[in-house]
Every structure is written in structure tokens, then in C-alpha cells.
Design goal:
Length: 371
């Protein structure tokens, strides 16, 4: 197999090496250094919030956000079942209970009607996940949150730069959380960020991030904190990546358009279905994904095996959390999530793909579904 097209590849085509070498040359390689503050301030400006708090990954970013909001044992937080498990894990880290809501069949994001059904007197927050780069219906989410007095923590781990209603994803709720893992739209290798307009919440998160050490009294600790800090090297990568984010988003949009054009007849005839962009939103296409319908002559898993043999890496969609052992709940009522997860796969989506790569991927896909 000479040709191999991975599902995700980071694009390191800017000042990444220059900034990282600066860290090495100056020996500022740990959790102190100029790049951390610079990355935070520029990321906040990009998203459109007053504050940004960098940390070591997206999962702990969620944890810090929930800690700052005082989420604790006995509380409930509504999350989509159809997303990566870190969203629910962060709730459990606080001793609270994640409550699973079903998805919309077209956008695959959390269904606002399902959110409303899951609210109880114990509900304290909602975590809408902007899945695969597609923003949620934030008008509906925020209206529900306002009605019931709930916090909203946007999980924008996959959604850097997406727009809903003229605002960047992550800047609409109480807080927004981002991941900079190696397969994300911009990366620091590992890393995360929380954005907010609330300076008091940002101060709390910085305190928890740094082991709880009093910022005015070194080595004095009033609370039990965590070592959730980002390194200067990671922030240097992030700053360079942020400088090129518009190019990354444009390239992904072009890749998505190529897929739509190459597979247009299969979409039109209902053989395949792709994720629809939420109304009033701009999708950044972290992953271009398709669902197989009953008109396909092959199962999703066998298709993935055959694509892999032809040098095309794909990924299954996330398993709904309510079907997995840590969160098993047969009464969750998330049938749409179960259906989407069983039929879907992510196709290669990154800025280094050429039109010929997408044509090759789609030709193999056509060959195996054999309509």
C-alpha cells in the first residue's frame, strides 16, 4: 500500500518552529514564560471574550470551568449523549451527575427539546457540544438556560472559529472550552483553553489550575487545586497556530465542499447523508462525516476496513455515552444518537488534503457501497 491518507494531520506551516526554538534558546520551557500570557490574550481577542485561561488539555478545561461554577455532588449537568466521553467525565470529576439528552437527526447536535425534558430541580448547567465543528442552536439553549437559571458551558473543543448568530462559538454561554489536541483545527500537541467575560470566574480557574497557590503569597495554599497548567512550549505552538487559523478554516471549508461535490449524486439519492449545518451558523468542518443508509450494500465497519486497506483512514462516529459501561442507562431515551452513531464515519479532513486526495477517497467509497 503506497498511498495513505490519514484522517487528521496538523499543519505546522507558520512560526511554530521559530517560537518553540525561542523557548529552548531562552530555557523557558515549563509553565512560566511569555508565550502563555500572549496566547491567552490573543485567543480571547480572537474569540471575542475578556478572559482566556490556558491549561494542559480540553478535558481539564471542562473540569476547571465546572469547578469555578461550584458544580458539586448532588448536582446534575445536561450533556449530549452523542459526543466524546470527556464531556461527561468532567461532570463526574466534580461528583455531579451527567444527564444525557438526545440529538437532532439533521445537525447531530443536542436537541433543545430533549434538554428541556431532562431538567430537574437538581439541574445546574447545560454543556452544549458543537459537534464536529458545527455550532449548536445556541439561541434555543440560552433561552432554556435563562428560563431555568442555568449555567451554559460551551464545549467548543472541535469548533475553533465557528460562528453562530454573528458571534464565535465559545463566546455565547457563561464559558466556552476548547481543546488543542493534535487533531484539532489548531493544536498545541496537548492543551486547552477556557474563555469567559467573567473576571471572577477566570480568577478562580487560574487558582485551581496552579495547585491553588495564593498568587500574592508564594507557596501558600488556601484550597486544594490541580496541576493543570499549560507549558510555554505548548503556548508557543498555540500562538503560531492561531496566527494561521483563518487559513486552516478556509482549507477545511474547501475540503468539505469537495466532498459535497464529489458525492453529490449519492447525497441527492439518499444513499449517504452528511451533517447539516445549524441555521444561523458557520461550520468549520473539523470532521466531514457521512451516514450510510439502508441503500448501501455494506456495513459501516466493513467499509472502514476496506478503506483502510486502500490507504484511507476513517473513524467511526462517537459511541453514545449512555450505552458504555461507565454511564450505561437503558432508559436514557437517546434513540437518534444511537442511530447516528451506528451508521456514521469521519472521512479525512485537514488542511493538507488536495482535490485529488478527496477524489481518491470518494472513488473508493463509491466502489464499496455498490448502490
Amino acid at each position: 500500500m503506497d498511498k495513505f491518507i490519514p484522517v487528521a494531520v496538523p499543519c505546522l506551516a507558520g512560526n511554530e518552529k521559530k517560537y518553540v526554538n525561542d523557548c529552548l534558546d531562552t530555557t523557558w520551557i515549563s509553565s512560566n514564560g511569555k508565550y502563555i500570557g500572549e496566547f491567552e490574550s490573543r485567543f480571547a481577542a480572537y474569540i471575542g471574550t475578556r478572559e482566556a485561561v490556558a491549561c494542559c488539555n480540553g478535558t481539564v478545561a471542562l473540569h476547571l470551568a465546572l469547578l469555578a461554577l461550584g458544580i458539586k455532588e448532588g448536582d446534575e449537568v445536561i450533556v449530549p449523549s452523542f459526543t466524546y466521553i470527556a464531556t461527561a467525565n468532567a461532570v463526574r470529576y466534580c461528583g455531579a451527575t451527567p444527564v444525557f439528552a438526545d440529538s437532532l437527526a439533521d445537525t447531530w447536535n443536542m436537541d433543545p427539546a430533549a434538554i428541556r425534558k431532562k431538567i430537574t430541580p437538581k439541574t445546574k448547567a447545560i454543556i452544549p457540544v458543537h459537534l464536529y465543528g458545527n455550532p449548536c442552536d445556541m439561541d434555543a439553549v440560552m433561552a432554556i438556560a435563562k428560563e431555568y437559571g442555568l449555567f451554559v458551558v460551551e464545549d467548543a473543543a472541535e469548533c475553533h472559529g465557528a460562528i453562530y448568530g454573528g458571534r464565535k462559538a465559545g463566546a455565547i454561554g457563561t464559558m466556552g472550552v476548547f481543546s488543542f489536541f493534535g487533531n484539532k483545527i489548531i493544536t498545541t500537541g496537548e492543551g486547552g483553553m477556557i474563555v469567559t467575560d467573567d473576571a471572577a470566574l477566570a480568577q478562580k480557574m487560574r487558582l485551581y489550575r496552579g495547585q491553588g497557590m495564593d498568587p500574592k503569597k508564594r507557596y501558600w495554599f488556601d484550597i486544594i487545586g490541580y496541576n493543570y497548567r499549560m507549558t510555554n512550549i505548548e503556548a508557543a505552538l498555540g500562538l503560531a497556530q492561531l496566527e494561521g487559523i483563518d487559513r486552516q478554516i478556509a482549507a477545511r471549508g474547501q475540503v468539505a465542499q469537495w466532498y459535497i461535490e464529489e458525492l453529490a449524486d449519492l447525497f441527492k439519492d439518499g444513499v449517504l447523508v452528511f451533517q447539516k449545518t445549524t441555521a444561523n451558523a458557520e461550520n468549520v468542518w473539523w470532521m466531514f462525516s457521512v451516514l450510510l443508509t439502508d441503500r448501501c450494500a455494506i456495513s459501516r465497519d466493513v467499509l472502514m476496513e476496506k478503506m483502510q486497506a486502500d490507504g484511507v483512514e476513517t473513524r467511526p462516529l462517537f459511541y453514545p455515552m449512555h450505552v458504555m459501561p461507565p454511564y450505561l442507562d437503558e432508559s436514557a431515551g437517546c434513540e437518534v444518537a444511537e442511530d447516528i452513531a451506528a451508521r456514521g464515519l469521519n472521512l479525512p479532513t485537514h488542511a493538507l488534503l488536495a482535490r485529488g486526495d478527496v477524489a481518491y477517497i470518494c472513488s473508493k467509497l463509491r466502489n464499496y457501497i455498490k448502490v
